[in-house]
Amino acid sequence: MLTLANIRVYDRGVAEPDSRGTRNYRGGGERRDEILDAAAVLFASRGFHGVSIDDLGASVGLSGPAIYRHFASKEDVLAQMLLRISRHLHDGGARCVTSASSAPSALDGLLRFHASFALAQPSLIVVHGRELPNVPEPARHEIRRLQRAYVERWVGVLAELSPQVPVSRLRVAVHAAFGLLNSTPYALGGTVGPDPAETADLLVTMARAALLTSG
Hints:
63% of the residues lie in helices and 4% in strands. The chain is mainly alpha-helical. The two termini are 28 Å apart.
């Protein structure tokens, strides 16, 4: 089972452009990950336009220009941040479904996976919801592609559980459940409270009930 302890699994390494013009990380890259993590907190608290390259460098003990050793621009930092988490959700969702023995267990795996993400990464939820329009193309297109594929993983599982319900209705239900699960930065004030496991169980129970009553 995926928990708060193992949610932070991302691609790491040297950024190289792929065929879509986005960047992929391979190999070692702890410094880049440190910058991305710091940027998520800064962008969430101050907004993308309220953070300078100098601010970002200072947050990780670098000069502002030193950030350009790792990223092409501040916009590239934002793009790589959201690409990283979009890939993580996409790949994690695929693992939840392919490793499950049944549709009910696949749904449970998806719910617990996403609840763990929501509790562990409130800053990323805020940044994605507010700053995606500031990501340049083609990275923004790739982020949306990965997110649509993630949604369809959920829709496919729900379609097995409720074959009589139109897919369009199931898709609306999935987005509504994401709204519930992703409410943690606002409902919890950016914290997970004294018992993260209990909070995760509550989110899973509520989201499951919402999804299974969508028909």
